[in-house]
Fold:
Amino acid sequence: MEHRQSIRHKLELTVGIYHRGSWIGTCRTRDISRGGMFIRARPESLRKNSLIEVTFDRPGSTGGVKRYRLPSLVIHGTGDGVGVMFRSQEGEAHTALQQLVAERTSAQRCA
Structure:
């Protein structure tokens, strides 16, 4: 049964994963929505109901790169990855991710 309430955007983005403050590794997303994302990762390394932090980088307004952290919850795992739900859809990190998704999906449509 589908519980998603927002559109998924196919988008490969490099993200970092932390679990309990420990570095898990770098992964790629398959798709991103307003409420979560699917991450290509070994499901055994990220079990269902695990609280994790997803990090991503975005160019800053004054040059350079800014790293953002999104507290998330692992909802499900499949053979090729895990689906995570963002624990909040508010704040600077969530806004930055949505802007990044909009920029990248717009660029894909124009290409």
In short: The mean pLDDT is 87. The first helix runs from residue 92 to 110. The chain is about 15% helix and 50% strand.
